[in-house]
Amino acid sequence: MPIRRGPLAVVLALLLLPVVAGVARAGDPGWLNICGFSHRLHDDPIMHHGMPGMSHSHDFFGNVGTDARSTPRSLAGATTTCEMAADRAAYWMPTAYVHGVAILPVEVRFYYKTNTTPLSAVKPFPAGLRMIGGDHEATKPPPTSVVSWNCGQGSDMTHPSDCGAERQAAHVKFPNCWDGVRRDSADHMSHMAYPRDGHCSKSHPVPVPRLIIRIEWAIHDGRALRFASGSSSTLHADFVNAWSQNVLKRLVRECINAGVDCGHASGAAPNPVPVGPNLVGNAGFETSLRGWSAVGPGRLRRVEAGHDGRWAAQASTDRAGSCGIRDEPSWVATSRPGRYRTWLWVRGTDGGDLRVLVREWQGGSSIGAEVARIRLSSAWRRVFVDYVPQAPGASRLAVSATTPVKGAGACLKVDDASIRRSVI
Question: Domains in the chain and their CATH numbers?
Fold first, then answer.
């Protein structure tokens, strides 16, 4: 039966997009937030703080109270256009024009990722940190590691172009190595630096999340774009951290440090972390495989060196095809309305494709499903799927994890399975 996606289902482990250098990708550790347009002013709280009207025109996103006199304290007391209420940060960029007419983006996405190693070293932004990505005085295109132009999800370019049927988009990429001392600097830039070869320098030793702002306009020929700051080379963006620090710390720990793509962290709740008990009866395979079975003609056995504890489940097969594990017949009842978060710790052959399916059953019929895909690794990785049941109280959730194989052998290890009713 074809999969019918629940209307409110959200996948936190998003489907992998084609790998494009420099572009924020699903599958990379971190998270995504979407923030709507708030207002337009000739203010710049970083470059011209306390001087209303002194700047070129900027479009402001996120914090609705941002103006020339904004401080971290004033921002903390305002509301936000962001889907995550905990994100009260101020974001702004120069107003865009086409043939002299100001236009707004159709969507602006705010990715919090990383390109430094190790992942465990990344720290949250300090409260009140100010940053600038790009250069409003640039006379030639900056490197694509700072600003890149794209046709839809296409590859990086140094300048806008005729995108044909695709929309013009751009990515502004902020520096993510902090000097560990200053929240700002005289030039508003020297307290931050870009990493080299995945590492921060001794002068800027603290890796923080890599903020990437993706801007998309409802135009197909980007060559007509101009900005209040000048040519397309001057595209830039500004950021003042006014996040709820507790939520920011948790996101960095649960997503970037843990090597997890938490995907689209949406919802009004300030804390996107699952609550409630684990509804999976045999989550860690410490005593048996009860409640779990192999997919297709495969086999399932307990093996040592689990993720958390001594044991894990290992799936294998005798032939080419699909190999994996499923929780049938121990399906989880959706006893209450809400969002149910499924996660699994998995490991397998580096680069292998893993498909995690959460399917909702009512009686003998499938009434909805959600799928997540990630690349397997020889190290343990955690994959998330969030799903909102269509018939809570009258349905059950089934989970499976499968990977395609070309021949016989072990294909996948799974441990610490969990389904919890979530707050988002």
Answer: 30-257 (no CATH), 293-422 (2.60.120.260)
